[in-house]
Design goal:
- The chain is 45% helix and 33% strand.
- A hairpin with a 2-residue loop joins strand 3 and strand 4.
- The longest helix has 45 residues.
- The radius of gyration is 20 Å and the shape is globular.
- It starts with a helix and ends with a helix.
């Protein structure tokens, strides 16, 4: 029964033309990608996280490799524009729930031209009523927001890649 179910799921995905997002991303990005990260001067501790996360996404989602600026066929410039905190709840004078508004700008230079995308994410998080843990939890909220922004950027690139592939397929049909 389990084998039949797995076969049906496989058949459903292959027969309907399903392609993973990494296939569409390849329409925009070739194999070698350069990543440059610029961070807000107020929070420089997030620069290594953004750089490492972008490199991880290139390996796992783009199926590409990180290259030097000179060797890369495409370039991604990430500009972390900072975070604004809004307290949502208090307890004994301490903020116990807040919203972090994270702003990130992505600029992509590809073989087909430049693409820019500004992303603004909100993360709401609970925090313990203690000054010792609040700083650590704020940093974790920033990182969660940055990861969410990177995922949104990947989805945007994937959608652009799908449009490029459809345009190529349409043009090939017109010439035949």
């Amino acid at each position: 029964m389990r084998i039949l179910l797995m076969f049906l799921v496989f058949f459903l995905f292959t027969s309907c033309g399903y392609k993973p997002s990494s296939h569409y991303i390849k329409q925009i990005f070739p194999n070698s990608i350069y990543v440059e990260v610029e961070v807000d001067a107020v929070e420089p501790e997030n620069a290594p996280f953004i750089k490492d996360e972008m490199n991880r996404l290139i390996y796992t989602r783009f199926k590409g490799r990180v290259a030097s600026k000179e060797e890369a066929e495409s370039k991604i410039y990430v500009n972390y524009k900072g975070t604004r905190y809004t307290p949502l709840a208090y307890e004994n004078g301490y903020v116990t729930r807040y919203r972090a508004d994270i702003r990130v700008n992505f600029k992509m230079e590809t073989k087909d031209g430049n693409i820019s995308k500004n992303i603004h994410n909100r993360i709401e998080s609970d925090i313990k009523a203690s000054s010792l843990t609040s700083s650590t939890l704020r940093t974790e909220a920033i990182r969660a927001g940055l990861a969410k922004s990177l995922d949104e950027f990947i989805a945007y690139v994937s959608a652009r890649g799908m449009k490029v592939e459809k345009k190529k397929n349409f043009n090939s049909l017109k010439t035949n």
